[in-house]
Each structure stands twice: as structure tokens, then as C-alpha cells.
Design goal:
With 160 residues, the chain is of the alpha+beta class. The chain has a single domain (5-158), classed as Aminopeptidase (3-Layer(aba) Sandwich). The chain is 26% helix and 26% strand. The protein is built from 4 helices and 9 strands; from the N terminus they run βααβββαβαββββ. It has helices at 13-24, 28-38, 85-99, 111-114, and strands spanning 5-7, 43-49, 54-60, 68-76, 104-108, 120-121, 125-126, 136-140, 150-151. It has a 7-stranded mixed sheet, with helices on both faces. The chain has a two-stranded parallel ribbon with strand order 7-9. A hairpin with a 7-residue loop joins strand 3 and strand 4 (68-76). Helix 1 runs antiparallel to helix 2 (28-38). The chain is globular and about 40 Å long. It starts with a strand and ends in a 9-residue tail after the last strand. Residues 3-148 form the N-acetyltransferase domain. This is GNAT family N-acetyltransferase. InterPro entries: Acyl_CoA_acyltransferase (IPR016181), GNAT_dom (IPR000182).
Length: 160
């Protein structure tokens, strides 16, 4: 199935907020996305499906002086799930991060889901409360290069 993906626009904010509220059962994720958008220089890529049936956000989260991105959150509307939209958003977002110069991407999510993209447990990254959790994973975007070890610096909106 072909998905029509595009960069999110300011006019999408309400629909994205509603999608996140429905997908996560509350306002916390929508508030996080809004705060990240307001934080100067935080967003690497924000993509939606044309009708905002899906959304993904990547923000800068460097490790030392290495440009690293963080994927959070990913959401797909209930009627559009299990049709490849989430995977399409992740793949397009990873490509956008690579184009922006990111060396790696971090995510806190279901290891069974994110393994299909090549994510593996990020055991050598510290600095956030979720570091060390089995669902905290990383993916190198550079061939022959491993994910850096060290302290990650998430945008302020994450509260770390």
C-alpha cells in the first residue's frame, strides 16, 4: 500500500494533537510535541500522512558532539493501523534524519516493532531516566559505524 506522507505544517497542529490524544489516551504526548515544536532547533523531522492518520516526530538528542536524533512519538489512528503506515513514517523519518546529518537515532519503544528497522538495545547511552531500559534502542544511520556511547542530551521539553 502506498502512503502519502509529507512534512507536518502548522495548520496540522490540531489534527496531530487529536491523533496523539486518541493514540495515547491522554494529552501528555500532544503537549510534548507542542513543547518540542516551540523549542528552537529541537525538531529534525515531523511527518504526517496526508490526512493526518499518522504522525512521527524526530528531535535532536546529541551524544557528546555526535548529531543523534530521537524518535518520539509515533502514532497511527486506529482505523489506519496494521496497514504499514507506521513503518512508512519511520522509514521516511529515518531518511530525513540521515539527510539532516544525524549519525544515529534513539527510540524508547517496543523492541519487536523497532527491530524491523535495525534498532538494537542502546546499552552504552546514559543521561536520561529511560536509558538502560530494555526498550531503549538505537540505530546507526552510517554504514560501518556504531552508535556512539556516552551521555545523551534530549531537548528540554523531555524534562531530562
Amino acid at each position: 500500500m502506498t502512503h502519502r506522507l509529507r512534512e507536518a505544517r502548522a495548520a496540522d497542529a490540531g489534527a496531530i494533537g487529536a491523533l496523539l490524544h486518541d493514540a495515547f489516551g491522554g494529552a501528555a504526548e500532544a503537549a510534548l510535541v507542542a513543547a518540542l515544536r516551540r523549542e528552537t532547533g529541537a525538531v529534525v523531522a515531523e511527518l504526517v500522512e496526508e490526512d493526518v492518520a499518522g504522525h512521527v516526530l524526530f528531535t535532536w538528542a546529541p551524544i557528546g558532539d555526535v548529531p543523534v536524533a530521537a524518535l518520539a512519538p509515533l502514532a497511527v489512528a486506529a482505523p489506519a493501523r496494521r496497514q504499514g503506515l507506521g513503518a512508512a513514517l519511520v522509514r521516511a523519518g529515518l531518511a530525513s534524519c540521515a539527510d539532516a546529518g544525524a549519525a544515529a537515532v534513539l527510540v524508547l519503544g517496543d523492541p519487536a516493532y523497532y527491530a524491523r528497522f535495525g534498532f538494537r538495545r542502546a546499552e552504552a547511552v546514559t543521561g536520561a531516566p529511560w536509558c538502560g531500559h530494555p526498550a531503549f534502542q538505537a540505530l546507526s544511520l552510517r554504514a560501518g559505524w556504531s552508535v556512539p556511547s556516552g551521555v545523551v542530551r534530549y531537548p528540554r521539553a523531555f524534562g531530562t
